[in-house]
What does this fold into?
Amino acid sequence: MPHEVDGARTGEPPQVEDRGSFSHAVCRVCGWSGPGRRSRQVSRRDAEQHVGDCAGALPQG
It folds into this structure.
């Protein structure tokens, strides 16, 4: 069962947030924020790449 880290559940995938006409990925588990001024597609790719590096991620296996 996932537990909470800084108010976010571990295992929760990073989200893509919009800021004006640009977006960026954010991780509510560890506080990571991807580069800004990205397209949604690139922000989603940033989020996918972050999942493996997240300090609060659940162990695989």
Remarks:
- Residues 40-51 form the longest helix (12 residues).
- The chain has one helix and four strands.
- The CA atoms of residues 20 and 37 lie 9 Å apart.
